[in-house]
Design goal:
Layout lengths: L8 E5 L6 H17 L8 E5 L5 H10 L4 E5 L16 H6 L2 E6 L2 H6 L4 H13 L3 E6 L3 H7 L3 H11 L9 E4 L13 H18 L2 H6 L1 E5 L7 H5 L6 E4 L6 H8 L8
Parallel strand pairs: 1-2, 1-8, 2-3, 3-4, 4-5, 5-6, 6-7, 7-8
Helix pairs in contact: 1-2, 1-11, 5-7, 7-8
The chain binds 2-phosphoglycolic acid.
């Protein structure tokens, strides 16, 4: 595989938390915290994924204050426009300067019946609208017991990436379902094993160059106290952070993992 440098990506998935006013306060506090700490902006890419109703407000703030955070949405419709009540088109997200969109989060797969085929259609929709899909895959505790760690995420990723062009910009997030919101993260070794396997899937399905440049994130109970261990692994290129992204000091400490002892 071609050696390339991948800029680490720290992504904050707010889930269904914070209205647009609370969003303003958190983004401002996060920005100030990083500035106070003299954080070097280019060292890590920061992306935040607020609820849909916050996006316009956060976009305006980022723009006005020149805040170096990328904006993303937590989902999108597989369709571009039309009679799909309650859905949000990738075209609308692109107009709000969203760069990223999370697709196939386990909560959407589980509570909103998103199949691998729906996930694949949403990946295509994201690419159509110039958005970078953050494709989430991961096994449940039962899957882990029955099939081991890689089998289910590998199967999910193969379907999600089918038909993705070789030059597409994508991000993959490995999120073991048993680790999400549980306080029990995978070990760095477990994350590395699965992320390395997922990289071979990107190579097979999309191409070697894509595999070399694609960021593969780990997600599931990431905190400032465990991020450095994940980031030391060669195939873990960042983190998708849920709960800890809602606390400015904690998320800033995750972003600044390079300053943690021992990295
Ligand atoms: P968590 O969530 O960090 O709260 O475990 C991660 C996610 O669901 O993306």
């Amino acid at each position: 595989m071609v050696a390339v440098t991948r800029t680490p990506l720290t992504a904050g998935n707010w889930k269904m938390n914070l209205d647009h006013l609370q969003a303003l306060a958190l983004v401002q506090k996060l920005h100030w915290t990083l500035k106070d700490a003299k954080h070097e902006d280019g060292s890590v890419e920061v992306a935040i994924f607020p609820p849909f109703t916050d996006l316009r407000t956060v976009q305006t703030l980022i723009d006005a204050d020149k805040i170096p955070f990328a904006l993303g949405a937590q989902d999108l419709s597989a369709h571009t426009s039309g009679a799909y009540t309650g859905e949000v088109s990738g075209a609308f997200l692109a107009k709000l300067d969203c760069r990223y969109v999370i697709i196939g989060h386990s909560e959407r797969r589980e509570y909103h019946n998103e199949t691998d085929e729906v996930v694949a259609a949403k990946v295509q929709a994201a690419l159509t609208h110039g958005l970078v899909p953050v494709v989430c895959v991961g096994e449940t505790a039962a899957d882990l017991e029955e099939f081991g760690a890689s089998a289910v995420p590998v199967g999910q990723l193969r379907i999600a990436l089918a038909g993705v062009p070789a030059d597409a910009d994508i991000v993959v997030a490995y999120e073991p379902v048993w680790a999400i919101g549980s306080g029990q993260a995978a070990t760095p070794e477990q994350a590395q094993d699965v992320c390395a396997t997922l990289r071979t899937v990107v190579a097979e399905v999309v191409g070697e160059d894509a595999a070399a440049r694609t960021r593969i994130l780990y997600g599931g109970s990431v905190k400032s106290s465990n991020i450095a261990g994940f980031m030391r692994e060669p195939d873990v290129d960042g983190a998708l952070v849920g709960g800890a992204s809602l606390v400015a000091d904690e998320f800033a400490a995750i972003i600044r993992y390079q300053k943690h002892v021992g990295v």
